[in-house]
Design a protein that fits this description.
The protein has about 350 residues and is mainly β. It has four helices and 26 strands.
């Protein structure tokens, strides 16, 4: 009887081993060796400045990824069930403004009062004041969007937005992170011609977007490579791209310009040393993909946001690592002396007084 039990256990272990080593997976990982993560010192010194973030209730719902504020200072956020919630200017009285039946992520109001929205499942949308929804774009160069992510709107109405991955949907975003292939794009939508074209290709999880106040460049975060790209829109470098800031201490997500002298960048979670060590080893990442979800890498509970000047220098460092922190900040918007935070780990919006 004992020998039989031992044989069964050995067979089960062999089956598990074969599964972890050889079961087919939908990812084709690429090797990449990241620079050593910068320590949380100097510009990134640990602190608890975000310990007093106020939570603004949205009612029932989860993961308000981004924040938009209209001309009446009312506050908007999209939830993971497709609803877009609206709060009054004082952060009270949540109500449903619209429902995309998808997954609303980045959002911003245009000059006509329409809420332009990157919906991970539905594409680039425009929502009128009465909640009516128009689809603006779902593909570029014959390649459909799989994870429309974030956007910003130029002074002339041109919309810059990202498709984080043309291969994996938001529900399987970990697959894209483990694959680490250039599946993302920065795109432009021209409202006058209703056309979409690619501005920057081959990004590893293209995420946040922000245009400089002087309209000379647009920034896009490349989450999987811990950096922000800059694409020049005007001047002698027009059409060229370079790196705005590199080797960040966390995974860059959404960000925005305050319209004056600062970009506010959300780091959704700090870098993970174990994950960085996996990146040069595609075969090991396939094994990780086969593991149960609870054993795979996941964002940590941590608050992290940076203020960057127009040259990419860190001028503000906001953190909180306490258990009760407003965790996994996904976007930051400045308005009338406050920062408003979206999150993929909270059910409420965050509000933080700058001074």
């Amino acid at each position: 009887m004992v020998k039989r039990l031992v044989s069964i256990v050995l067979l089960l272990l062999a089956a598990v081993l074969l599964y972890l080593l050889f079961w087919p997976v939908p990812i084709s990982p690429a090797a990449w060796s990241p620079a050593t993560a910068p320590p949380l010192s100097g510009d990134y010194e640990k602190n608890s400045r975000l310990a007093n973030v106020q939570r603004l209730s949205l009612g029932a719902g989860f993961a308000p990824e981004d924040v938009a504020i209209d001309s009446e200072s009312r506050i908007y956020a999209g939830l993971d069930d497709g609803r877009i919630m609206r709060l009054q200017a004082d952060g009270t009285r949540p109500e449903v403004f619209a429902n995309t039946q998808g997954r609303p992520l980045g959002m911003k109001f245009d000059s006509h009062g329409n809420l332009v929205l990157a919906d991970a499942n539905k594409g680039l949308l425009s929502i009128s004041r009465d909640g009516s929804i128009i689809v603006l774009s779902t593909q570029a160069d014959g390649v459909a969007f799989a994870c429309t992510n974030d956007l910003d709107i130029a002074a002339d109405g041109t919309i810059y937005f990202t498709d984080a991955s043309s291969k994996f949907h938001l529900s399987t975003y970990k697959a894209d992170i483990l694959e680490h292939q250039p599946n993302g794009r920065l795109l432009i939508y021209e409202p006058t011609t209703k056309t979409t074209r690619v501005v920057l290709r081959d990004l590893r999880f293209a995420n946040g977007v922000a245009i400089s106040p002087d309209q000379t460049f647009v920034l896009v975060s490349e989450t999987e490579r811990y950096r922000l790209h800059r694409v020049w829109l005007n001047g002698p470098k027009q059409g060229q791209s370079d790196i705005f800031i590199d080797n960040l201490p966390g995974f860059p997500d959404g960000f925005s310009s305050n319209g004056k002298d600062k970009f506010w960048l959300a780091l959704v979670t700090p870098r993970d040393a174990t994950f960085d060590k996996l990146l040069p080893h595609p075969f090991l990442r396939k094994i990780v993909y086969r593991l149960p979800a609870f054993l795979q890498p996941a964002p940590k509970r941590y608050s992290f946001a940076l203020g960057l000047d127009p040259n990419g220098r860190v001028v503000e460092n906001l953190q909180d690592g306490s258990p009760q922190c407003y965790a996994q900040i996904a976007n930051v918007v400045e308005h009338q002396g406050f920062l408003y935070f979206g999150s993929i780990g909270e059910s409420a919006l965050g509000r933080f007084a700058l001074r």
